[in-house]
Write a structure and sequence with these properties.
The complex is a heterodimer of chains A (114) and B (112). Chain A is an all-beta fold and 114 residues long. Helices cover 0% and strands 50% of the residues of chain A. Classes of the chains: A mainly beta (114), B mainly beta (112).
Amino acid sequence: GPKVLQIPSHQIIDMGQMVTLNCDPVSNHLYFYWYKQILGQQMEFLVNFYNGKVMEKSKLFKDQFSVERPDGSYFTLKIQPTALEDSAVYFCASSWDRSNTEVFFGKGTRLTVV
Amino acid sequence: GEQVEQLPSILRVQEGSSASINCTYENSASNYFPWYKQEPGENPKLIIDIRSNMERKQTQGLIVLLDKKAKRFSLHITDTQPGDSAMYFCAARGSALGRLHFGAGTQLIVIP
């Protein structure tokens, strides 16, 4: 079936450094999402993105976070600078539309900030 | 409010019996309710969903019920197998922009 690919699967980074998480969404999808999951807890919405713009973001989407998808390449989540509390698994997701179709999730990137 | 509450957090059942997971939501405008199964180290995978124009949906040993008045929806797994052991998340979509609100998850353990 359709797959969302995330690179890398694991990333360890020093606090204060910048990190970019990469996502290759399902090829014909138009809506893209990032979710954050701390171990053993629920997935929490960060942001959704459509047509080159952020459509909606949550309180967890701090000023240090940014997203982009330049010219149909990877959909990226950048954190600059990172903080210890950013350690989590970040899931990228995509869907064809925003209301009626399935949202597909990637396997996540486990980010550890030390 | 947008919160989705999910219970129980852990569910142990004997192989062959049924398992039920319950979720409630706050936003009466929510219109789409997916259920995801997540195995360790894997991505959450959609197993069944229901839209607000339905009260019941069934597929391959899974039944979902939706009670819009009570703002409650539930997943029932009939004839559980060890392969059903995983984390299960309910979610509700209430935002017109596609955002899903997830429950805290249920760890289902099927005992052979």
